[in-house]
Amino acid sequence: INAEYGDNPRHIEIQVLADSHGNCIYLNERECSIQRRNQKVIEEAPSSFITPEVRKAMGEQAVQLARAVNYESAGTVEFLVDSQMNFYFLEMNTRLQVEHPITECITGVDIVEEMLRVAAGKELSYTQADIGIKGWAVECRVYAEDPVRYLPSIGLLTKYIEPSVAENTSDNGVRCDSGILEGSCISIHYDPMICKLVTFAPTRREAIAKMEGALDDYVIDGITHNTPLLREILSNEAFLTGDVSTKFLEEEYPQGFSGAELSAGQRSELFPALAVLHHTKANRSGAGGSFKYIISGEGEERGEVTVNVGKDGGFSVTMDGETVPVTPTANLYEPLQKFTLDNGRSVTVQQLDFNGVTHSIRYRCCKKELTILSPLQQQFMDMMPEKPVLDTSNLILSPMPGSLLMLSVEEGDEVLEGTEVAVIVAMKMNNSLKAPKSGKIKKIWAKPGDVVDGDQKIIEFE
Question: Catalytic: which of 95, 149, 205, 302?
Answer without folding.
Answer: 95
